[in-house]
């Protein structure tokens, strides 16, 4: 997932443009920190919404600020707005799927409307209508090597047994059959908006209700999406964006998705997905370019309160600014990292998410404990609560773990 500078002004224009609009009823919204707000929805555009309090004050807010139930309400409102002037008694019903539509996850992976050419590597199958496969094939295999060092034989075995994330071996066999009958994770590069839209619409057709509304609203802004069973990934190569930047998107997403596959879960906590992605980016490129919020806008809002040496950017490694923050006493704890959500993220917390994952993967002993913790999620998934992570990494208390973690950040080993 990445944020682009032009998106915020565009969304504000969509939300604030004149015209008649539908309104929702007053209801209680709750943010991810547990704070409540009585308001009604005026408009929803992409990842933003405009709401109005009972005192008449209006606000434009990130949808990710709210709880999952409120997010579902907002995306359902966008997909099924009430009639102009009407105030509904309840949220609109979910969007119905067409008769005979495939179940989510069963969408054919060929995307036959597009003339893709295919290049197979040892573990990946890369598809592009532009017939250009480098440097993606090299980046993908390097990501594989690094993740194999973390997950050792289990990742290799999952591919060989065609049990990557979806446990249905026969479905995987049908989707991934090739000349050598080898399971390969598929990577699609959409070269233009038409290709990306066709692929997005095909996948959206397998969804219903709030998930479909959420997907349709957010995906065009994100520029990438992937299979819910972690079998493939689509990346939109947007006009004007340097090809080099897609290497970061690719390896970040691969690290997150390969990790999710090891847990046998369709989703994993944000810290784990973002953390492994940041770690992979740093390992291969010494920079982190996949941001889960607009860093530039965040720092602009600080009005010069952040010193240059503490700024995390997309051009260089994050280890130095995080080390500076830690040395100055600006620290986030283990609980802060494990409970990170889009609504409470900041560049500083993003940096500590990266630092925490780097710490967990910093030695062979820690990697082994990390792998065991991930594999344990297959039998008893618990969203990796604080006590689970602390115990799995061999600590009796979170305080002792934080002590070692901060020592690592301040050392030369964190780079």
Integer tally of domains: 3
Order of helices and strands: HEEEEHEEHHEHHEEHHHHHHHHH
Tell me which oligomeric state these chains represent.
Answer: single chain
Question: Main sheet?
Answer: 5 strands, mixed
Total number of beta strands = 9
Query: DSSP helix count?
Result: 15
Low-pLDDT windows of residues? 1-22, 83-108, 166-177
CATH fold title of the largest domain? Glutaredoxin
Strand-residue fraction? 5-15%
CATH architecture classification name of the largest domain: 3-Layer(aba) Sandwich
Derived from helix and strand composition plus strand pairing, the structural class reads alpha+beta
Can you give a write-up of this model?
With 415 residues, this protein is of the alpha+beta class. The chain folds into 3 domains: 7-79, SLA1 homology domain 1 (SH3 type barrels), CATH 2.30.30; 117-267, Glutaredoxin (3-Layer(aba) Sandwich); 295-410, no CATH class. Helix content is 45%, strand content 12%. It contains 15 helices and 9 strands. The chain has a 5-stranded mixed β-sheet with strand order 5-6-7-9-8. The chain has a 4-stranded antiparallel β-sheet with strand order 1-2-3-4. Helix 3 (136-160) packs parallel to helix 7 and helix 7 crosses helix 8. The longest helix is centred in the middle third of the chain and has 25 residues, at 136-160. The chain is globular and about 60 Å long.
What structural keywords apply?
globular, Glutaredoxin, 45% helix, 3 domains, SH3 type barrels, disordered N terminus, alpha+beta, 415 residues, four-stranded antiparallel sheet
């Amino acid at each position: 997932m990445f944020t682009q500078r032009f998106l915020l002004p565009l969304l504000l224009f969509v939300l604030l443009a004149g015209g008649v609009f539908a309104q929702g009823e007053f209801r209680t919204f709750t943010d991810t920190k547990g704070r409540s707000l009585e308001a009604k929805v005026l408009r929803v555009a992409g990842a933003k919404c405009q709401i109005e309090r009972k005192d008449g004050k209006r606000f434009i807010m990130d949808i990710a600020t709210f709880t999952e139930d409120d997010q579902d309400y907002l995306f359902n409102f966008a997909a099924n707005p009430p009639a102009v002037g009407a105030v509904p008694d309840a949220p609109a019903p979910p969007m119905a799927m067409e008769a005979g539509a495939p179940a989510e996850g069963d969408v054919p992976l060929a995307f036959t409307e597009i003339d893709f050419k295919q290049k197979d590597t040892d573990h990946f199958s890369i598809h592009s209508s532009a017939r250009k496969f480098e440097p993606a094939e090299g980046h993908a295999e390097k990501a594989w090597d690094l993740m194999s060092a973390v997950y050792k034989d289990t990742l290799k075995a999952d591919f060989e047994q065609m049990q990557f994330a979806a446990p249905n071996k026969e479905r995987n066999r049908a989707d991934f059959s090739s000349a050598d009958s080898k399971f390969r994770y598929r990577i699609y590069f959409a070269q233009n908006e038409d290709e990306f839209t066709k692929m997005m619409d095909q996948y959206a057709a397998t969804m219903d209700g709030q998930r479909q509304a959420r997907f349709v609203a957010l995906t065009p802004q994100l520029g990438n999406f992937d299979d819910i069973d972690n079998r493939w990934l689509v990346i939109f190569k947007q006009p004007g964006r340097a090809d080099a930047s897609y290497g970061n998107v690719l390896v970040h997403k691969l690290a997150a998705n390969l990790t999710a596959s090891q847990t046998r879960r369709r989703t994993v906590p944000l810290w784990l997905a973002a953390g492994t992605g940041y770690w992979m980016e740093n390992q291969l490129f010494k920079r982190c370019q996949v941001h889960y919020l607009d860093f530039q806008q965040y720092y602009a809002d600080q009005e010069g309160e952040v010193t240059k040496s503490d700024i995390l950017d997309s051009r260089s490694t994050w280890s130095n600014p995080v080390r500076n923050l830690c040395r100055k006493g600006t620290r986030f704890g283990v609980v802060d990292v494990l409970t990170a959500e889009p609504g409470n993220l900041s560049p500083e917390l993003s940096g500590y998410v990266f630092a925490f994952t780097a710490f967990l993967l910093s030695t062979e002993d820690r990697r082994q404990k990390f792998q065991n913790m991930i594999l344990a999620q297959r039998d008893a998934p618990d969203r990796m609560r604080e006590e689970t992570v602390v115990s799995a990494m061999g600590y009796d208390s979170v305080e002792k773990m934080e002590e070692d973690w901060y020592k690592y950040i301040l050392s030369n080993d964190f780079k």
